[in-house]
Amino acid sequence: MKNTNKILSGILAASIMFGTTSCGDDFLKENANHTTTDALLETGAGALAMAAGLYGNLRWHFGYEWAYAITLYGCDEFSMGSDETSLGWMDYNTAEMNPAGSSRRNHPSPADLWNELYFGIATCNLLLQKAPLIASEQDRNSALGEAYFLRGYNYYRLFCQYERCPLQLEPIDVSAGVPRNFKLSSGEDVLNQVIDDLQKAYDLLRTDDWRGAGTWTKYTAAHFLAKALLYRQSERCTWKSNYPAKTDLDRAIRLCDEVIDARGLEKDYNNLYSNWTGVDCNIEKSKEILMSALHNDASTTVGRYGNRTYNYFSSQYNTYSGGYVPRGQYIGDMEFQRCRPTEYTYAVFDNVNDSRMWKTFKTVYGICNNVATPDYVKAENTPTFGDQGVLFLLNKKDDTRFRKDEFGRAAIKHTFVNPETGKWVPNVAPVYAEGQYVMNTYGTSAANRSNMFCGINKTADGSRTGEKGDAHRDVTMARVGETYLVKAECQVRNGDDAGALATINLLRERAEWKAGEDREYYVDGTIAFKSNSTASGNCAKGNKDANGAKLTNQQAFEYSFIQKNSYVLSTGVERPVESESWNASSLQISSWNNLPAEDQAVLNGMGLSVNTLEGKVNFILNERTRELLGEWNRWDELSRTKTLYKRAKLFNPETLYIQEHHNLRPIPQSFLDGLTNDNGEPLTDQEKKDMQNPGY
User: Fold this and answer.
1) Average pLDDT over residues 211-236
2) Strands 289-293 and 340-341
3) Could you give the CA distance from residue 453 to residue 38 in angstroms, rounded to a whole number?
4) Are 338 and 85 in contact (CB under 8 A)?
5) Which of 18, 319, 446, 656 sits 20 to 30 Å CA-CA off 206?
6) Cβ-contact 13, 115 below 8 angstroms
7) CA nearest 535: which of 505, 564, 555, 512?
8) Residue 557, SS3?
9) Torsion-angle region of residue 402: left (phi > 0), alpha (psi -120 to 50) or beta?
10) How far apart are the C-alpha atoms of 472 and 334, rounded to whole Å?
11) Which residues lie closer than 8 Å to 500 by C-beta, 6 or more apart?
């Protein structure tokens, strides 16, 4: 590849990503063997292939530790287990965030996002220059729309994280040397550019999935354009009075309605994540999904960044379980214990009536290795293969049924016998016991580094052929469920409280248990192991049966994957008798003055009234947790509403050093160090300081 446009030395890194070298879905496979040169870009076909390559820029977001560090750490929803790989992003220790100051080898840098987003922007700029070569008007408009969309999205992310950044809107000619005198545009100008790009994308993109599942459409652009318009009327934009609020919010609401009417919601929340049965399965084609980072199992398209997200949300069962549940590809997750839910996250769900809780959290792992049961366990209570090896109870604070000392992990004596099975459970923990939050007290470390917790299942992947291999499933980045919440917040800010509540109730209706639905049924992407090519091989961890014979992966899968959750034991709700079935539940909210107890507790803790805009916005943030937990945008949303500091301090004790200025990330030092002034001289320390975001 020759004469590609680059800005060197970590300033605005640029790289052309062509054809299928980075993307993974079917519509990107067919050109995997292309050799791309500048000559190809002089043809319409080449420019169209280049547009397909834009999708690969999204893969970076989910390749390594920055996936969760940039988006989920340091907020209200997740703390961490005993692994401190991305500690600086959690506790806001600025010295740790600087790679040069961190002793943690894989600690993400504040420059990672900055550099990668500019890779995509540079490619978009070149495509916008070359797209007129596409003869077909429809294909030309589609390619232009894709370029405007990705550039708008990437600048949106830069704005969310850093606010100020250089606006580079043309390809850079480096024949005269590498430019180094970039200026930071104001946050207002950056966001306005986002809105302009997304508007152009909306005008140009088609409404159909013309490339196949995963295509960016008019509705993808509409969703993000609505988010950008809402952002311009949110708390962090101190210049928002320059733009009529009603104009922005009315426009955003119309865009949301267009998306909702055209794409709609899945009927069952399980069809968003849990019913993932393998590569390119039906749920990846859901109309609710507006944008994904595309992946598959083709070695020709894996590129540099695979999907590593299955590592981040599970507790460290392989370590604390006492050998009862070794890890392997037969379990859909890896126990890297990066994201441990906070007490707020468990407590904000209605654990009886909200199916999202039970379709999001994985409460049971089955025993898949022979371990001698402790002597204090009675023979009739001794568990065996396929019984519960790890069990979590998602109960409420006022639950008086349990004592703290009857729970624990395998290495610590505890007496819990599941009354439903009559079997001792080697590893078991509730959220609450004796009126106290105790989920974080049964791990191998202090409470702030507990490695035993109930994690979420949205990234589980049983198609992996090695326990540490890349996942093969797409990563959802935007969907219609969020569109409802964007619309509701716009309505609240527009003074339409009744309309906002009606919008939220429509979303909550999907989360209600349906009549006859089995509330104890559980499934997640582990189910994809049913067709795994490594099923007949022996477990890598040497799992053995009672006679010492090695278990195959297939046997371990059958024992470990229990498709029954802990709903009844967690809630105390009686199971229907055999002649009856479960009733439907209701999550409908009758008025703003009659919010669910979970939400009222949060608002009370924050000292807020629901009769204020701040109170209503924080209620919507609670609903975002229930609907979108772990979906890669929490930090951006809390920063946007300037609730980051308050919610993190109240609900996440690990955000030790957070201050108000942390609503923005630091401008990457590597960028500042590479800059020159207009005379070509390096910036002075004071000039760099003047360019840096406040507080850094």
Assistant:
1) 98
2) unpaired
3) 52
4) yes
5) 18
6) yes
7) 555
8) helix
9) beta
10) 14
11) 488, 489, 491, 492, 616, 620
Q: Tell me the C-alpha to C-alpha distance, in Å, between residue 166 and each of 4, 155, 275, 380, 668.
A: 20, 10, 42, 69, 12
Tokens 């794409």 label which residue?
263
pTM for the structure as a whole: 0.95
- Chain position carrying tokens 């540099």: 304
CA distance 288 to 286: 5
Task: Encode pLDDT of 55-70 as tens digits.
Answer: 999 999 999 999 999 9
User: What are the pLDDT digits (tens) for 34-88?
Assistant: 334 566 667 888 888 889 999 999 999 999 999 999 999 999 999 999 999 999 9
Confidence of residue 95 (pLDDT cuts 50, 70, 90): confident
User: Rounded to 5 degrees, what angle do the CA atoms 53, 54, 60 make?
Assistant: 100
- The residue count for the chain: 696
**Angle CA(528)–CA(532)–CA(535) in degrees, nearest 5?**
125
Tally of helices (H runs) and strands (E runs) in the chain: 22, 9
Q: How far is CA 434 from CA 31, 118, 571, in A?
A: 61, 52, 15
Structure token digits, residue 179? 């430019």
Q: CB 395: neighbour CB atoms within 10 A?
A: 21
Give the number of other CB atoms < 10 A from CB of residue 529: 27
User: What is Dmax (Cα atoms) for the chain?
Assistant: 85
Q: What is the DSSP string of 343-403?
A: HHHHHTS-TTTBHHHHTTB--EEE--S--PPPTTS-GGG---TTSEEEEEE---TT--S--
